[in-house]
Amino acid sequence: MKLQYRLTLPIQSSLGSDTFKSASAEIKDALADLMLDAYSGTVDYEGEGLQEAKDEIGNLLGGVYGTFLADHSYALWDKNVLVSATLVTLMKERPLLAFSMTRSDFKRHGYARRLITATANSLWESGYSSLDLWVTDSNEPAIKLYEELGFQIV
Question: Which portions of the chain are predicted below pLDDT 50?
Answer without folding.
Answer: 16-17
